[in-house]
Amino acid sequence: GPPPSAITAMGSKVNAKKAMQAAGVPVLSDLDPAAVTEADLPLLIKASSGGGGRGMRIVRDLAELDDAVVAARREAESAFGDPTVFCEPYIERGHHIEVQVMADQHGSVWAVGERECSIQRRHQKVVEEAPAPLVERIGGSMRAELYDAARTAASSIGYVGAGTVEFLADSKGRFFFLETNTRLQVEHPVTELTTGLDLVQWQLRVAQGEPLEGEEPSHTGHSIEVRLYAEDPARDWQPQSGTVHTIDIPADVHFGLLSRPGIRVDSGIADGSEISTYYDPMLAKVISWAPTRRRAAAMLARALSDARIHGLVTNRDLLVNILREEQYLTGDTDTAYLETIGLEKLSAGLADERAERIAA
Fold first, then answer.
1. Which pTM was predicted?
2. Which end of the chain has fewer CB atoms at under 10 Å, N or C?
3. Strand order in the sheet with 43-47
4. Cα–Cα–Cα angle for 180, 183, 187, rounded to 5 degrees
5. Which residues contact 342 (CB under 8 A, 6 or more apart)?
6. Is the pLDDT of residue 340 over 80?
7. For the residues 108-113, what does the mean pLDDT come to?
């Protein structure tokens, strides 16, 4: 992993933003809650030491600000032991774009592709993909500028190993630093499948003192990852617990860049596994790779639809519906996607379709 100093530097979002601003990385301005006016709305309250949406509040009415700050501080203290919160402008329909970095002990930093993770529920990612549809659409110099900002962010704190520099972008391609995750993230497989780089292997090689060799890898084709959760989206994302009687997801056994289109499954869940209420309800990560985005989406939707999952309610139908929904297929996937399309439509069951296919 990275040196403790790098983890400390990024551990506080307040301090991290100040460090990134000093390094020349674009950041959203901090707002003092006591000085906020109507012109500053909407704004986002965030926990300095937090993540995953905890200690986070959106404020659109000035009258709600004080109560929201108190509630955010209380949640941040409970979740992270640190009540520090801060405010920043809120981009209503933003895009969550992140750059995978790999840095060695000799000063070299690679930007290993970008990912888009805009489809989220409660600020938790649901669908992740590489390359980012927004970056592909904007084109021009956006990718190069993102990579430069990510390398600068990593270099400025003496980063070593695998990490992710996260940005919030608007529809015009302007982007702002969010945070640096000082670890390998859940969505790293889409980067591995589009670049052919084994990120776990490189973590070990870097830890042994090896330098990064050659040029930064380029990306090939498109990869999409979905998080299969034991939860009921139609019932306010209620987590499910109990026994997984059967879980069988069609997959190919591949790591790195696939030589042909295929499906990868990363999971520690098997038939008979018990799902408790004490841990994250993710059952598996299911990942596709294909030469084109539409083909990757179609293959992933089919694999999920064909999967046998018995014993618990999951978000499988939601994932399949997203992957087949036309707005998603156009790449128009900002952070308001689930609210825009609507959970009623996206949560519609596919049981009849699966039954017809089995009968046929």
1. 0.86
2. C
3. 57-59, 43-47, 85-89
4. 90
5. none
6. yes
7. 97
Asked if residue 12 lies in contact with residue 49, where contact means CB atoms within 8 angstroms, the answer is yes
Q: Residue 133 corresponds to which tokens in the numbers above?
A: 């549809």
Determine which helix (DSSP H) or strand (DSSP E) holds 66, and give its type and residue range.
helix 65-80
The Cα 318–Cα 201 span in angstroms is 33
Name the DSSP letter for residue 6: H
CA of 158: how far to CAs of 19, 25, 102, 244, in Å? Answer: 12, 15, 12, 44
Q: Tell me the angle at which helices 199-207 and 188-195 cross, rounded to the nearest 10 degrees.
A: 90
| 132 vs 283: CA distance, rounded Å | 25
Q: How far apart are alpha carbons 314 and 311 in whole angstroms?
A: 9
Cβ neighbours of residue 306 under 8 Å, at least 6 residues apart? 250, 354, 357
Give per-residue pLDDT as tens, 219-257: 999 999 999 999 999 888 999 999 999 999 999 876 667
d(CA 72, CA 57): 7
Helices and strands (H and E) in the chain: how many:
13, 17
Whether 142 contacts 129, CB under 8 Å: no
When pLDDT is averaged across residues 28-41 and rounded to a whole number, the result is 84
DSSP-derived pairing of the beta strands 175-181 and 109-121: unpaired
d(CA 39, CA 93): 18
How far apart CA 245 and CA 238 sit, in angstroms, is 20
User: Reduced to 3 states, what is the DSSP secondary structure of residue 80?
Assistant: helix
C-alpha triplet 196, 106, 7: angle, nearest 5°: 80
pLDDT, mean over the chain: 91
What CA–CA distance (Å, rounded) separates 132 from 100?
A: 12
CB burial of residue 329 (10 Å; 0-12, 13-18, 19+)? middle
The stretch 23-27 carries a mean pLDDT of 94
Token pair, residue 335, equals: 């952070």
Instruction: Return the percentage of the chain with pLDDT > 70, whole number.
Output: 95
Q: Can you read off the two tokens belonging to residue 149?
A: 């900002």
CA 52 – CA 106 distance, rounded (Å):
32
Picking from 30, 23, 165, the residue whose alpha carbon sits closest to that of residue 85 is 30
Residue 18, amino acid:
K
